[in-house]
Amino acid sequence: MTAPIVRFAPSPTGRIHIGNARTALLNFLFASGQGGRFVLRFDDTDQERSRQEYADSIVVDLDWLGVVPDLVVRQSDRVAFYAAAVARLKASGRLYPAYESADELDRRRKRMQARGLPPIYDRAALKLTEDDRAKLEAEGRRPHWRFRLDSETVTWTDLVRGESHIDCASLSDPVLVREDGTYLYTLPSVVDDIELGITHVVRGEDHVTNTAVQVQLFRALGAEPPLFGHHNLLVNASGEGLSKRSGALSLTGLREAGAEPLAVAALAVLTGSAESVHPVAALADLGPVDLARLSRAPARFDEHDLWTLSAKTLHGLPFETVRPRFAARGLPDDAVGETFWLAVRGNLERFDDIDGWWAVVHGSIEPVGEDPELLAAATRLLPEEPWSSATWAAWTTRVKAETSRKGRALFHPLRLALTGRDTGPELAVLLPLIGRARVLARLSGHAGSSRQEP
C-alpha cells in the first residue's frame, strides 16, 4: 500500500480552535502512523479576510501540539494552477458563464420553494445565445462561472461513515469562479489535491455534501479522486458548534491559559471515538488512528474535562519531556531538576505552578507558625545531614515520642512551617530537597510565633 499523503487546509482568517485541531491531528497521526506525509495548505484565496498573523499563529499552534508539516503551501502562490484548470474546464464545456445577480437568484429560489420544488439552479444560463451574453455584458454585467454537473449518483466508501452516496441531480451547478475572477473554495481545493498528490482527504462531516461535486471535478480534470473520510465534529459543552470567528476554545487561548498540549491533543483525538479519553506521555501514543472507530454523532468537548486531563497529564510526564521547559525558566535541567520534578509533579495543576514549589524548596516562604511547643521540640530533634527519604519518618518518630503529638496534630504544623502550605508533596521526599539549613531556619523562625491568618 502506498504511504498516504494528507493535508490540513485552514483558512488564515482567525485563530484555529480545538475542533480544527481535531482535523489536523487525525490527519497527522493517520499519515505518520503509516510513514506518510502531512501537508499544511493555507486556503488564503480570500484576500480580504486572510491575515499573515493568523497564518503565523496556526504554525505556532500546530508546533505546540507537536504537529510538524512535511510541506507548507499557500493557495495565493498557486493561482497559475487554477487558471490552467479553468481553461481546461471551459474548453471541455464543463464550465459555463452565468449572469444572474445574487438578488435574482434569491427570488428564483423563493419562487421554486413556493411551488414545492427543490431550490436548485435551473441552468437558465445554458440557454443564452452569444448575442444574449454580449447584450448582458454591454449592460455592465460580468459572468460568474458554474461547473456543469453530470446527473449521476456519486458513491464512495467513506473511511469513517462507510458506504456513502449523493444524487447530483439534487444539487445546483456550483459556482467555481466569481464575477471578479477570484476562485471559490471548491476549485483550488481540488486542483491542489491533484497537484500535491493527496491520497486521503480527512475532514469534518460538514464537508460531506461537497464530496460529490469534488469527485466529478477531479474526474473532469482527468484525475482519480482521493479516498475520503468525514469525521464527527466537536461541539462545546452546550452542544453548540465551534467557530474561528468566536475565538472560543482557540489553541492560542488554551496555550496561554496553561493547558498541556498533550491533553489538548488527547481530548481532540479521543473524544467521540471508541477509545476512552486518557492521558498520554507522547503524541505518538495516540496513533495509529483508525478512522472507522470514530463515532458518527457530534462529540461534546467540555473545557472542565480538559483541565482535569491537563493536570493528570502533567502528573505522569517524565523529566525528559519537561527538561526544555525547565531550561527555559532558568531551572536546573540536570539531576537536581529531575529529582525536584519527580517530587512535585503530582501536585501541579498547571506547569506554571512549578515556580511556587521551587520557591518552597529553594527560596523563602511566608511564615506560618502553628503549635510553637511542637516546633521547638522539632528544632531540637532535627537530625544532622546527610538526609534521605527515610529521614522524615525517623525525625517525626522522635518528635512524636517527646511531644505525644500524632496524626494531623503532628504532621500539619510541620508541613505549614516547612512549606507554608496546607497540602503538597510527600514531606519524606521534599525534606531532603529543602535541606537542613532551610528547615532549621523555618522551624526556628516559627517556633515562637502563632499562625498568621490571611
UniProtKB/TrEMBL annotation:
* Keywords, ordered alphabetically: Aminoacyl-tRNA synthetase, ATP-binding, Cytoplasm, Ligase, Nucleotide-binding, Protein biosynthesis
This enzyme catalyses: tRNA(Glu) + L-glutamate + ATP = L-glutamyl-tRNA(Glu) + AMP + diphosphate
Glutamyl/glutaminyl-tRNA synthetase class Ib catalytic domain span: 6-307
The short motif 'HIGH' region is annotated over: 10-20
Residues annotated as binding ATP = 244
Per the record, a Pfam family? tRNA-synt_1c
For this protein, the Enzyme Commission number is: 6.1.1.17
- Say which enzyme class the record assigns: ligase
Motif 'KMSKS' region covers: 241-245
Q: Where in the cell is it found?
A: Cytoplasm
Q: Which GO terms describe its molecular function?
A: ATP binding; glutamate-tRNA ligase activity; tRNA binding
Q: Signal peptide position in this chain? A: none
Q: Where is the Aminoacyl-tRNA synthetase class I anticodon-binding domain?
A: 372-444
Give Gene Ontology CC terms.
Answer: cytoplasm
Can you supply a Gene Ontology BP term from the record? glutamyl-tRNA aminoacylation
Q: How would you summarize the oligomeric state and partners of this protein?
A: Monomer.
Entry's family note:
Belongs to the class-I aminoacyl-tRNA synthetase family. Glutamate--tRNA ligase type 1 subfamily.
Instruction: State its role.
Output: Catalyzes the attachment of glutamate to tRNA(Glu) in a two-step reaction: glutamate is first activated by ATP to form Glu-AMP and then transferred to the acceptor end of tRNA(Glu).
The name of this protein is Glutamate--tRNA ligase
Record organism? Lichenifustis flavocetrariae
Instruction: State the encoding gene.
Output: gltX
